Structures are given as C-alpha cells and as structure tokens.
Amino acid sequence: MMTEVTKQRNVTIIRLDQVYDSLDDRRIDDLGKLLLEQAETAEPAKLLVDMQSTEFIGSSFIEVLFRAWKHTSDRGGRLVLGGVSPFCDSVFKAAQVDSIFDIYADTAAAQRSLEADSVPD
To answer: What's the pLDDT tens digit per position in 83-101?
Structure first.
C-alpha cells in the first residue's frame, strides 16, 4: 500500500501504510516530506492522518507527526489522528504526546471533529 492523500468536505486526509518504525529511514523521510508539504499547503489547514491500516510506529514517526502538527498549528489549523489502533495509542501515551495530538480510534469521528472546527474554510 502507498500513502494516499485525498480531500473530503474541506478536510485533507492522509491515509498511511502499515509500518513506520525507525528501521526504515527512507519511508519515514518520505512520509515527513509528504506531511510537511500538506501541513504547509492544505487549504483549509485541516489535516486528518488516517492510521487505520497502521500497525506499528516508532519514535521517528512521532517526530515527523510532531513537525507536521507544529506547521499546521502555526497556520491556525489542526492536525488530528484517526483510526488509531490500541497499540499505536499506547505508544503515543508512553511517549507522552497523547496530550499534544487529538487522537481518535474512529476515523469518521476524527473527520467530524475537523468538519465542525472553526478553522476557516
């Protein structure tokens, strides 16, 4: 599977692959470039990172997400995570970043949250 970017009802959705661990630097670098590009250019700045196919993440993945979140926030937008598995959620909690990211087990709930947001369309 390849990472896919789509837009639905003013929300840019980035659907992720299965594994983003620190052992695959190229995959992490490619994801970082894609996320930063979307964080800097998406109009409106409403990003949903769809993780429903993602089974494993590592610290490099969290760093990439944080940079994209920061760029989106600096533009007055929001980046949320949807479809987060219990394992990935536990990694976010262990890294103590669960208070930074809006994390949803359900991708549809994450999208509804962005659609209802007051970020200008």
So the answer is: 999 999 999 999 999 999 9
